[in-house]
Specification:
The chain is mostly helical. The longest helix has 30 residues. The termini are far apart.
Length: 93
């Protein structure tokens, strides 16, 4: 129960501060990091506020699990890119 309360408090605080600073740099910083098809360009404000709040609160409460998820997603992405590169090389020869 304590973890849930900590997560809810962190979620509310992160959501409040991200929403408060959306036009002061959060949307611009988000657009610098994301690929072109995910860029917010200032729209979808509440979707991105909720997404960042959930990710931030979960990272504060369970940092090891989030690190493992990021590493796993990175390895899967690397394997897919390597497989696609290999298949592309096979089709051109």
């Amino acid at each position: 129960m304590t973890i849930l309360i900590i997560w809810l408090v962190a979620f509310c605080l992160i959501a409040y501060f991200v929403n408060d600073r959306w036009n002061k740099g959060v949307s611009h910083g988000l657009d610098k990091v994301l690929p072109s098809f995910l860029k917010s360009h200032g729209s979808n404000r509440y979707l991105w506020v909720l997404t960042l709040a959930v990710l931030g609160a979960t990272t504060l409460v369970q940092p090891v699990e989030m690190l493992l998820v990021v590493l796993l997603l990175g390895l899967i992405g690397w394997a897919i890119m390597a497989l696609a590169s290999w298949a592309s090389n096979k089709t051109h020869h």
